[in-house]
Amino acid sequence: MLTADVLIPVYRPGKQFEELLEKLSRQNYPIHRIILMNTEKKYFPEGLERKYGNVEVHHLAKAEFDHGGTRDQGMRLSDAEVVICMTQDAVPADETMIEKLLSPFENPDVCAAYARQLPAADCREVERYTRSFNYPEKSRLKGKADLEELGIKTFFCSNVCAAWRRDKYLELGGFVKRTIFNEDMIYAGKLIQNGGLIAYCADAKVVHSHNYSAKQQFHRNFDLAVSQVMHPEVFAGIRSESEGIRLVKRSIQYCVHIKKPWLIVQVVTQSAGKLLGYKMGQRYQKLPKKVILWCTMNPSFWQGGNS
After folding, report:
1. Choosing a second label site near 245 at 20 to 30 A (CA), which of 27, 32, 117, 238?
2. Half-sphere exposure of 171 toward its Cβ, with a 13 Å CA cutoff?
3. Is the distance from CB of 191 to CB of 168 less than 8 angstroms?
4. Using one digit for the tens of pLDDT, what is the confidence trace for 238-269?
5. Residue 195 confidence (pLDDT) above 80
6. Contact (CB, 8 A) for 201 and 154
7. What is the CB neighbour count within 10 angstroms for residue 246?
8. What is the pLDDT of residue 242?
């Protein structure tokens, strides 16, 4: 049995986070340590970690937080064979989530695995379909041989709930230490390029979804594209947009199928926000800093001297 730690960056935790800790405490697979990388000590509920014997909290200032760097710091605090990265708003759907997520690691070539994300109760209908498109019912292994078929989706491995083989992580240098976003796919790309396999585990389930507006999708996809442009060693020459086109077509078909054609307006506006943000992010080097700060969802990254 592999030793497993859970690593969670935390900021202003609420009831959902407490539910996450409770659900982790009930898993049928033993969790060695739960490492919390908390931004701003004043926002962390006093004594919360003492409710659980395996929870430890490491506090950092807001200026110190970085999507890749903070997670890397947590990975290096661990001594487990596998580290499971989660976000504070992802909740295990059942007591077997950890067990199912770790099962692919029986194959020594599997270096990472990620869970299926299910929509929350308040999730809008179009987003529910998007979840099912991106996280289907069937598991699969992904490797370098899948690049021609899947394109950039070969690298998809979401830190909302993803397990990483720690010795391979250290060997390849892990998450980039300073990144705007997308630290999981950047590192997953390195894994694939170095012959590793990534497992999508449809049986390992977490409840996690967002009802983003078209504007929020714009900001998110701007940062996504920026992260890809900043790492040509991973993403250059990899087909990236055909999957998005396929999602739009399938989403429109779905709206017609469920006899709610008015939802097509939502599909179109959301997709327009994603595409415009992505295209502008691809060209961020030509944009004035003032425009970049309006486009991004992470202004602190740019104000920290990155451009």
Report:
1. 117
2. 10
3. yes
4. 877 677 788 899 999 989 988 889 899 999 99
5. yes
6. no
7. 11
8. 73
- How distant, in Å, are the alpha carbons of 122, 133, 134 from that of 247? 21, 7, 9
**Polymer length in residues for the chain:** 307
Mean pLDDT over the full length of the chain: 93
Cα three-residue angle 102-206-140, rounded to 5 degrees: 50
- Token pair in block for residue 103: 């099962």
Q: What does the DSSP assignment read for 10-74?
A: EES--HHHHHHHHHHHT-SS--S-EEEEEE-GGGSPTTGGGGSTTEEEEEE-GGG--HHHHHHHH
- Nearest Cα neighbor of 195 from 229, 139, 147 is 147
Where would I find the H helices in the chain?
A: 15-25, 67-77, 97-102, 125-134, 147-150, 166-172, 183-193, 214-229, 232-235, 242-257, 263-282, 289-295, 299-303
**Residue 41: exposed, middle, or buried by beta-carbon count in 10 A (0-12, 13-18, 19+)?**
exposed
> Model confidence over 104-154: pLDDT tens digits?
999 999 999 999 999 999 999 999 999 899 999 999 999 999 998 898 999
- 5, 22, 301: which is closest to 169 by C-alpha? 5
pLDDT, mean of residues 192-199: 96
Question: Which residue do the tokens 């937080």 mark?
Answer: 65
pLDDT at 47: 85
> What is the per-residue pLDDT across 5-19, written as a single tens digit (0 to 9) for each?
999 999 999 999 999
Q: Which position has the token pair 């990236």?
A: 240
Report if pTM > 0.85: yes
Residue the block writes with tokens 């429109």: 252
Q: What is the largest CA-CA distance in the chain?
A: 52
Q: Which residue type is seen at 264?
A: I
